[in-house]
Write a structure and sequence with these properties.
Low-confidence stretches: none
Number of strands: 9
Number of helices: 1
Family: Belongs to the calycin superfamily. Fatty-acid binding protein (FABP) family.
Strand order of the largest sheet: 4-5-6-7-8-9
CATH topology: Lipocalin
CATH architecture: Beta Barrel
Largest sheet: 6 strands, antiparallel
CATH class: Mainly Beta
Number of domains: 1
Protein name: Sodium/calcium exchanger regulatory protein 1-like 2
Shape: globular
Keywords: Lipid-binding
GO molecular function: lipid binding
Order of helices and strands: HEEEEEEEEE
Pfam family, one: Lipocalin
Protein backbone atom coordinates (compact mmCIF):
# COMPACT_ATOMS: atom_id res chain seq x y z
CA UNK A 1 0.00 0.00 0.00
CA UNK A 2 2.82 2.42 0.87
CA UNK A 3 4.58 1.77 -2.46
CA UNK A 4 1.35 2.54 -4.35
CA UNK A 5 0.96 5.79 -2.39
CA UNK A 6 4.52 6.85 -3.16
CA UNK A 7 4.06 6.06 -6.85
CA UNK A 8 0.83 8.06 -7.13
CA UNK A 9 0.92 11.54 -8.60
CA UNK A 10 -1.94 13.31 -6.85
CA UNK A 11 -3.81 16.35 -8.05
CA UNK A 12 -5.11 18.67 -5.33
CA UNK A 13 -7.89 21.16 -5.96
CA UNK A 14 -8.97 23.69 -3.35
CA UNK A 15 -12.07 25.79 -3.93
CA UNK A 16 -14.06 28.27 -1.85
CA UNK A 17 -17.77 28.90 -2.21
CA UNK A 18 -19.99 30.76 0.28
CA UNK A 19 -17.43 30.38 3.08
CA UNK A 20 -17.08 26.62 2.59
CA UNK A 21 -13.77 25.22 1.36
CA UNK A 22 -13.56 22.00 -0.62
CA UNK A 23 -10.24 20.16 -0.71
CA UNK A 24 -10.22 17.36 -3.26
CA UNK A 25 -7.27 15.02 -3.80
CA UNK A 26 -7.33 12.75 -6.83
CA UNK A 27 -4.98 9.86 -7.69
CA UNK A 28 -5.37 6.88 -9.98
CA UNK A 29 -5.99 4.78 -6.83
CA UNK A 30 -8.33 6.91 -4.74
CA UNK A 31 -10.16 10.24 -4.56
CA UNK A 32 -10.77 12.01 -1.26
CA UNK A 33 -12.76 15.17 -0.62
CA UNK A 34 -13.42 17.21 2.49
CA UNK A 35 -15.61 20.26 2.98
CA UNK A 36 -14.99 22.64 5.86
CA UNK A 37 -15.24 26.16 7.24
CA UNK A 38 -12.11 27.69 8.67
CA UNK A 39 -11.79 27.24 12.43
CA UNK A 40 -14.77 24.89 12.74
CA UNK A 41 -14.32 21.27 13.80
CA UNK A 42 -15.61 18.62 11.40
CA UNK A 43 -15.62 14.83 11.06
CA UNK A 44 -13.17 13.46 8.50
CA UNK A 45 -12.37 10.00 7.20
CA UNK A 46 -8.68 9.95 6.28
CA UNK A 47 -7.28 8.29 3.16
CA UNK A 48 -6.22 5.33 5.33
CA UNK A 49 -9.74 4.92 6.73
CA UNK A 50 -9.43 6.51 10.19
CA UNK A 51 -12.27 8.67 11.50
CA UNK A 52 -10.83 11.84 13.03
CA UNK A 53 -12.01 15.21 14.27
CA UNK A 54 -10.38 17.91 12.19
CA UNK A 55 -10.09 21.68 12.07
CA UNK A 56 -8.31 23.90 9.57
CA UNK A 57 -7.09 27.47 9.92
CA UNK A 58 -5.17 29.91 7.73
CA UNK A 59 -1.95 31.55 8.90
CA UNK A 60 -0.59 33.80 6.15
CA UNK A 61 0.12 31.56 3.15
CA UNK A 62 -0.23 28.37 5.21
CA UNK A 63 -3.26 26.18 5.77
CA UNK A 64 -2.89 24.32 9.09
CA UNK A 65 -4.95 21.11 9.26
CA UNK A 66 -5.16 19.42 12.67
CA UNK A 67 -6.50 15.87 12.91
CA UNK A 68 -7.33 14.36 16.31
CA UNK A 69 -7.32 10.58 16.43
CA UNK A 70 -9.53 8.38 18.61
CA UNK A 71 -7.64 8.00 21.92
CA UNK A 72 -9.65 4.86 22.81
CA UNK A 73 -8.23 3.22 19.67
CA UNK A 74 -4.75 4.58 20.50
CA UNK A 75 -4.76 6.69 17.31
CA UNK A 76 -2.28 9.52 17.13
CA UNK A 77 -2.96 13.17 16.30
CA UNK A 78 -1.45 14.68 13.16
CA UNK A 79 -0.84 18.13 11.74
CA UNK A 80 -0.77 18.77 7.99
CA UNK A 81 0.67 22.12 6.97
CA UNK A 82 0.11 23.24 3.39
CA UNK A 83 2.27 26.19 2.37
CA UNK A 84 1.30 27.95 -0.85
CA UNK A 85 3.68 29.79 -3.18
CA UNK A 86 3.24 31.08 -6.72
CA UNK A 87 4.65 27.84 -8.14
CA UNK A 88 3.87 25.07 -5.67
CA UNK A 89 2.21 23.76 -2.53
CA UNK A 90 4.51 22.23 0.05
CA UNK A 91 2.72 19.83 2.37
CA UNK A 92 4.29 18.72 5.61
CA UNK A 93 2.69 16.01 7.74
CA UNK A 94 3.72 15.55 11.37
CA UNK A 95 2.79 12.67 13.66
CA UNK A 96 4.69 12.95 16.94
CA UNK A 97 8.38 13.15 15.91
CA UNK A 98 7.84 11.76 12.39
CA UNK A 99 7.71 14.32 9.57
CA UNK A 100 7.21 13.86 5.85
CA UNK A 101 7.04 16.44 3.07
CA UNK A 102 5.56 16.40 -0.39
CA UNK A 103 5.76 19.12 -3.04
CA UNK A 104 2.92 19.73 -5.50
CA UNK A 105 3.61 21.78 -8.62
CA UNK A 106 0.98 24.33 -9.61
CA UNK A 107 -0.86 23.59 -12.85
CA UNK A 108 -2.15 26.39 -15.01
Amino acid sequence: MRKMGNAATPTVEITLEDGVYTLKTVTTFKTTEIKFKLGEEFEETTADGRNVKSSIKLEGNKMIHEQKGDKEKNEKDSILTREFTDKEMIMECKVEDIVCKRVYKRQE
